[in-house]
Amino acid sequence: MELILIGFMGSGKTTVSLLLGEMLNTPVTDLDVEIVRRADMPIADIFAQNGEPYFRQLEHDTLAEILKSDQGILATGGGTPMRPDNLAMLKDTPTPVVLLKASATETLRRIGGDNGRPLAQSLDEKGIADMQAQRQVNYNACADLTIKTDGLSPAAIAKEIISFLNLPVSAS
């Protein structure tokens, strides 16, 4: 892996990873998309039919396999670093880990009404802020760089990451 993006749901991990992949001419893997592919069902259905523990095990197994790859960008799920063994893998990887952080207000604006996010269904701004606070210690524990995304375009975020990592941008 060349780069791992972490952060709360709606922080921009998927959007920024795809943009970085294009700018750096490197493959991108979205952990949630890969889980959906492997389970052959949407995340909401995985939660509904099998529960969160089952989903988290799928997430762990998929993460472990993807981290063995030597190229590309990985966008994790918002809860990925909350499982202790996932946190350990993210802390131990030599791959730079970038935390994208959005305020609760911005997060609600981005994910409000998204039925594909089972954990966000009943969250208001305070619920989002509380969940973000619960996750922050784990996010900070494995992040090499934190970018506050409020008010930044995906392109500005991508440029900040490229600058931090001193990566060459593809001419394509």
Q: What layout of secondary structure does this protein have?
A:
Elements: E1 3-6, H1 13-24, E2 28-30, H2 31-39, H3 43-50, H4 52-66, E3 73-75, H5 84-92, E4 97-101, H6 104-111, H7 125-142, E5 145-148, H8 154-165
Parallel strand pairs: 1-3, 1-4, 2-3, 4-5
Helix pairs in contact: 1-8, 2-4, 3-4, 5-7, 6-7
Plain-language structure description:
The protein is an alpha/beta fold and 172 residues long. The chain has helices at residues 13-24, 31-39, 43-50, 52-66, 84-92, 104-111, 125-142, 154-165, and strands spanning 3-6, 28-30, 73-75, 97-101, 145-148. It is globular. The chain is 53% helix and 11% strand. The protein has one domain: Rossmann fold, CATH 3.40.50. The chain has a five-stranded parallel β-sheet, sandwiched between helices. It contains eight helices and five strands; from the N terminus they run βαβαααβαβααβα.
